[in-house]
Amino acid sequence: MQEPPISVMPQVRAVQFRLDYIHAEKLMNASSASQPVNIMFNLSVLTANVSRQNTHLEVPFVANISSAPSIVSVTLRGAVILQFERREDMEELLRTLSEGKVPDLINMIIMQYVLFEASLVIRELGLPPIVPVPVPQQRTSERTTEMHYV
What we know:
Elements: E1 12-26, E2 38-45, E3 51-53, E4 56-68, E5 72-84, H1 87-98, H2 104-124, E6 134-136, E7 147-149
Antiparallel strand pairs: 1-5, 2-4, 3-4, 4-5, 6-7
């Protein structure tokens, strides 16, 4: 039986990121792919390697982004540094992480940062964005505000 997601998150004063490793590789041209491209995203939060200093917690992570067919591969390794106003809040999160549980908010914070950084790297490789770009579609007889994805 799967446990419910952890949604309790103590009050955080500041969030910082540090990237220690970036690897990106363009494996083939996107235009040569004749089929739809699926993007896979894998985020591992390394709860066993959490370190603490005063009112800061440093939570390491590894994110891998790849595609099928194999067009691009990106790996980002780093840490999110959380600063707390109260030591009790930090201790509460530290207990949760030591149990191997990661609050949804931490996962979302890391994912948002990683997707942004990976998008920049992928753009530098000359590939299109990994998130769908809305394109307005016009009908011949009338204008519409519907959005369609390419």
